[in-house]
Amino acid sequence: MQDFWLYFQLGWQHILDWQGYDHILFVVVLCVNYAISDWKKVLILVTAFTVGHSITLALSVFKLVTINTPLIEFLIPVTILITSVSNILSKKPKHRGSNFKYALALFFGLIHGMGFSNYLKSLLGKSSNIVGELFAFNLGLEFGQVIIVVGILLLSFFLIWIVKIKRWDWNFFISSAIFGISFIMAAERFSAAFLN
Any transmembrane segments, and where (predicted)? Predict the structure, then answer.
């Protein structure tokens, strides 16, 4: 049980680590155009992302897939770019197409999971309880993501309902800022992925 709490803590600390801010950016841009009243949709969206990264994290830890680290490190900001553009192009979250958003979050989770895998493999070493530790780490990641989601939904609520910023302006500002950051990240990682 002590190992469970250790890996749970490592999971949420990893997702909330500002040095690995690309995952924080993805979770923020994934839910920024939703309101607090949409919390169930956001929870499903983030859980779809968690399921995706849990799958590839497990496949990688059990050495069932091999990872081209530079390519994955390039694709992570690409997922953020695509999500940012999707937010910018849609005026509000559509009820139609929710299944597509969930599928996309799941697919992008597969990519992000590969990004987590080297970190987790270095932690596990030759551990004999990989399944339990992997489960605890994934729960920790989900817990960290929920903290980010709650934070962004509360900030959105405050700015939109109290300060009276237009919802579209808030979505456009955050999505555009994250687009710019992720574009720079993708450009910096492009050469390592394709030119070396």
Answer: 20-36, 43-65, 71-90, 102-120, 143-163, 170-187
Q: In the structure encoding, which two tokens stand for residue 17, read together?
A: 């680590």
Domain membership of residue 186 as a residue range: 1-195
pTM of this prediction? 0.90
The 8-class DSSP code of residue 66 comes to: -
Structure-block tokens of residue 161: 């309902």
Average pLDDT over residues 157-179: 95
Q: Which residues contact 58 (CB under 8 A, 6 or more apart)?
A: 134
* Spatial contact of 26 and 34, defined as CB atoms under 8 Å apart: no
Tokens of 169: 């302006």
Q: For the chain, how long is the longest CA-to-CA vector?
A: 54
Task: List CB contacts of 155: < 8 A, sequence separation 6 or more.
Answer: none
Confidence of residue 97 (pLDDT cuts 50, 70, 90): low
Check residue 2 and give its pLDDT: 76
Q: How far, in Å, are 144, 156, 177 from residue 150 at the CA level?
A: 10, 10, 20
Give how many domains the chain has, as a whole number. 1
Distance CA 156, CA 128 (A): 44
Of the candidates 110, 17, 11, the residue with the CA atom closest to the CA atom of residue 60: 110
Q: Is the C-alpha dihedral spanning 61, 66, 69, 75 positive or negative?
A: negative
